[in-house]
Design a protein that fits this description.
Blueprint: H1 11-24, H2 40-50, E1 62-67, H3 70-87, H4 96-111, E2 117-124, H5 136-139, H6 143-155, E3 158-160, H7 170-177, E4 183-185, E5 189-193, H8 222-225, H9 243-260, H10 264-268, E6 271-278, E7 286-287, H11 288-302, E8 307-310, E9 314-316, E10 319-329, E11 336-347, E12 353-362
Parallel strand pairs: 6-12
Antiparallel strand pairs: 1-2, 2-4, 2-5, 3-5, 6-7, 8-10, 9-10, 10-11, 11-12
This protein binds flavin mononucleotide.
Length: 377
């Protein structure tokens, strides 16, 4: 479709062509052609289009790092993969569309070095520190241009995907690229020819679930604002559900990391300072970071190195629920213990957990059991 997009179209046809470009520029991971080289001139063409994007006071502080050299791609690929595995260890499992997206993202993390071109858009600021507070004005001078680049690439038969997971190790990438401290990375856009050229619009929530006409008071009901993603769609979902699910998956991954690392303070930092924490409906309530850290100090010493499996979280507004299956071993005797249950969590606006309700069953006979095949479904 890319050949027909802009040229030769007029009026309504042009709008249709442009809309099609906008709604079919998808996150391409598995369909990046890792074997076909990309002419850098094509990337330069896309970047020339991107440079027409709006930016604050037309200051044009964007800087575009284009990486084609295999050794450098390998090194950046290693940083990316490490950051990805830290954030989404294999213990984080999912189902349905989330599982497909996670598997695609994992595939990308494992193959980033093989993607022929990595584009790293940056902003050069006057100092090494990003401003406190709302940074929309800063990043707004880069991110529209990044999207323009991706659209221009799609129009030329190239596939891209917006990635940011490497920013967890931003300094490592900066070192590899020789970036000065004043240059801040905004994203990393793997770019390659695509395998095939048919891309469909993705599942998104209906407009009326997020639209406020003439003020917030016109807000849609809460259940409409964060609806579950539809399971059926005219176009099978190519990738992820809503960002809420991703954020909760991320939180859970960090929680499991903290336990596996034996780091109760890292776990405590995932909760709001006044969070309430119930290990079970009839257990005493713990409240606040100190009591949660104390509890986890005991857990990590009694039950180190857990094997944790999680189902796909169900997210509705600020609440989330997830099933878990967990095998731990007594560090002295090696005797295993299997527990399974579910968590019902409430999240604060800053992404930390404000309320933890846990329901769990303990297998009493000291066995290490695998979940039934449909258990975490
Ligand atoms: C700010 C941002 C950060 C993202 N980070 C990553 C990432 O680190 N790795 C990845 O594989 N995809 C990443 N994505 C891609 C999203 O998962 C993708 O845009 C989303 O699932 C929608 O895909 P779709 O447009 O094909 O439906 C990111 C997207 C955005 C906008």
């Amino acid at each position: 479709m890319h050949g027909a997009l802009v040229t030769g179209l007029a009026g309504a046809d042009q709008v249709t062509g442009l809309d099609e470009l906008l709604v079919t520029t998808r996150a391409v991971r598995r369909r990046l052609d890792l074997t076909r080289p990309v002419d850098v001139e094509l990337v330069r063409e896309c970047l020339r289009v991107a440079l027409q994007a709006p930016n604050g006071a037309n200051g044009q502080r964007w800087r575009w790092l284009v990486v084609t050299e295999p050794g450098l791609r390998r090194d950046i690929g290693q940083v990316y993969r490490r950051a990805f595995e830290n954030r989404y260890p294999p213990a984080v499992q999912a189902n349905g569309a989330t599982a497909r997206q996670l598997a695609g993202a994992r595939y990308l993390a494992e193959n980033l070095a093989r993607v022929p071109v990595l584009v790293i858009p940056c902003l050069e600021l006057s100092g090494p520190r990003l401003p406190d507070g709302n940074q929309a004005g800063v990043w707004g001078s880069l991110l529209p241009a990044v999207w323009s680049y991706m659209l221009a690439a799609r129009a030329r038969g190239l596939g891209t995907v917006w990635t940011t997971v490497h920013l967890d190790a931003e300094a490592d990438v900066a070192r590899l690229l020789g970036l000065p401290a004043t240059v801040h990375q905004g994203a990393l856009i793997p770019t390659a020819h695509t395998l095939g050229d048919t891309f469909a619009p993705a599942p998104r929530h209906e407009l009326d679930t997020v639209l406020h006409l003439n003020g917030w008071h016109d807000k849609p009901p809460a259940e409409k604002r964060n609806p579950a993603m539809p399971t059926m769609s005219a176009h099978p979902p190519a990738a992820a559900p809503g960002p809420g699910t991703t954020a909760v998956g991320d939180w859970l991954a960090r929680f499991v990391d903290g336990w596996r690392a034996g780091d109760p303070r890292a776990i405590g930092a995932l909760f709001t300072p006044d969070a309430t924490y119930y290990r079970g409906p009839f257990e005493p309530r713990r409240r606040g970071t100190r009591e949660i850290v104390d509890h986890w100090t005991e857990v990590v010493s009694k039950w180190p190195a857990p094997e944790v499996r999680l189902g796909a979280p169900l997210v509705q507004g600020e609440r989330a629920s997830v099933e878990f299956w967990c095998v731990v071993r007594d560090p002295a005797t090696g005797t295993p213990r299997t527990t399974a249950g579910s968590l019902v969590l409430r999240f604060a606006p800053d992404g930390r957990c404000a309320r933890w309700h846990e329901y769990f069953s303990l297998r009493p006979d000291g066995a290490a059991l695998e979940p039934a095949p449909d258990w975490l479904g």
